[in-house]
Amino acid sequence: MTEQRTGTNRFAPGTFARPSAPASLARMTVSQTRMELTLFLRNGEQLLVALVIPVAVLFALTAIEFGAVPQPRIDYAITAVLTLSVMGTAFTGQAIAVGFDRRYGALKRLGGTPLPPAVIITGKVLATLVLVAGQAVLLSAIAAALGWRPDPAGLVVGALMIALGSIAFSSMGLLLGGTLRAEIVLALANLIWFVLIGAAGLAIGVAALPDWLHDLLVVVPSYALTSALVTAIDGGVPAAAALVLVGWTAVCGGLAVRYFSFT
């Protein structure tokens, strides 16, 4: 006994004769960036590191005297806090998210889609830049309410340094999260984050250091970004610190491209 077909074909003959054309790289990148932003905003822990802790540190550095931080303290506190927010989003949050995405197979499945690996990584970096820009605006507004009055030209140079630092720390996060086990990434990313916070504090004078030690510490990315922001806000051009951040981007980015694993 044969079963008779009771339905009719809703599609005209030949509708699926040719596969649909793939989306453009630009459209895929925009969609991937939007997805990364959505996932970040749903993560309470990352929002804590990205916003709540930097705001608390900003108030603490402004209200409490630390070491040899010059006056007005808000002018120097905001530079360290901006570095802290960049690290929390671009490095710590990025590394932990990538590490656990690999552990649970999310990146493996994403890598099996038509999305090129370059689009996946670019989407993560662009999402980081968008988030860091939002953090910088919010923290700058709070600092302005506390009496911060930066030079407009210094703000432009500072914004460029923040973008450069975001790319450098994002490269570090992708390298760490894309090569090690999730549990190791979780512990190591937080440990490195705390060490880098200390270097950022030294850049604004929370402890008195000899000049030769300051010259050595400039190779530390968080110290380089903080000192670059201090120089930019004071009206200077932080060429040496910018070169350090470019170097970290080149090294960590190159290693991430070579050794990044989706599994």
Describe this protein's structure.
With 263 residues, the protein is mainly α.
SSE layout and pairing:
Layout (H helix, E strand, L loop, with lengths): L24 H17 L2 H20 L9 H31 L2 H6 L5 H29 L6 H26 L4 H23 L6 H7 L3 H13 L5 H21 L4
Concise account of the structure shown:
The protein is elongated. The protein has one domain (25-259). 73% of the residues lie in helices and 0% in strands.
Characteristics of this structure?
263 residues; mainly alpha; 10 helices; elongated
Count of helix runs: 10
Poorly predicted runs: none
Query: Secondary-structure element order, as H and E?
Result: HHHHHHHHHH
Proportion of residues in extended strands: under 5%
Give the biggest sheet: none
Tally of DSSP β-strands: 0
Domains counted in the coordinates: how many? Answer: 1
First CA to last CA: what distance? 50 Å
Radius of gyration: 23 Å
Look at the structure and give the mean pLDDT: 85
Shape: elongated
What is the share of helical residues? over 70%
Which structural category do the helix and sheet elements fall into?
A: mainly alpha
